[in-house]
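User: Please predict structures.

Assistant: First:
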Amino acid sequence: MSRIGKLPIPVPGGVTILVDAMNKVTVKGPKGQLDCPIARELTVKQEEGTLYVERPDNLRRARSQHGLARTLLNNCVVGVTTGHSKTLEIVGVGYRAQLDGKALILNMGYSHPVRVEEVPGITFELVQEEKSRAQQIRVSGIDKVLVGQIAADIRKVRKPEPYKGKGIRYQGEVIKLKAGKRAAAKK
């Protein structure tokens, strides 16, 4: 039995869950609505503020989809109640970001600024951290997959380089720095 798949999903008040005949689950909450298709082998049951994902047999496909379906549904419930967010840090002299309406403009040392257009359901927020003086970009929304993809696209604009660590990184990401030519030659 899947350890993740058998866990119940708590459904807070104000969240409604509808399952149609094609096993498409619609989750509505205070922040919006998300649709999540579930494999046909699985069944979704709702009892007294708790959601369960069950499988009828132990066939390979049903086993492989069980934990995935539970995690996707949990992400939908969390998304429509509290939302998801990822924080990126900009490290480097002269590297900065600014908001132009709802679009994000990144000055990352290229000959031109890089513009990240707004995506429906995603919001950008700029935060200036006092201690490290690193500028932070917070990407937030209700869809966890979309938030992660947009954050990865922003990071891809200028990945952290391995010698000084300059670039865009996730908050808390550890960059393993390499020794330069002079330090390597002394060994």
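Second:
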Amino acid sequence: MNKITSMEEISSILTDGMTIMAGGFMGVGTPQELVTAMLESGVKDITLIANDTAFTGTGVGPLIVNRRVKKVIASHIGTNPETGKQMIAGELDVELVPQGTLAERVRAGGSGLGGVLTPTGVGTVVEEGKEKITVDGREYLLEKPLRAEVALLKAYKADKAGNLIYHRSARNFNPLMALAADTVIVQVEKIVEIGEIDPDEVMTPGILVDKIFVQGGC
């Protein structure tokens, strides 16, 4: 199976109303060319799961600015004023999730778990509408798993089987999201032949990756 893909094929996969995960932390580790593909495809009304909404011109920020997102699930939005503006105007549904909880909800989605129990948020607005469970006398919130139809990831290197290596902090949410989506598309800086990556260096196994877009490709 040839996993190397084009912008055109990526655009054909994206449809209105999808739930999409995007790796990255303040734009670092976000697949910027795949975000561009989303913009050029015209896809809209998406639910976006990401650590944050980055800045207006970087990361997933342009998706907010261009009003392609109907709901965002993220740990913070403060660096992108457009997100807050749309939220206050009632034009964008924003679900704020504590960062560690967000990571564990994605991990639960990727592991087939029914959710995670966490004390984070008990007694605050975070607990509104959520089930509370007491374990050994301590209250926990039941946080349900997160999954997406498509995950858009960024890696430093891939072989043609899709085995991935990330570059330092750009790793962030990408490996977790590779587990929690029906279709995983990764933008890579470098592509090598199968066997050129030491198995001990693989951070995301190729079996999880469906499509590879080589950065700067057409």
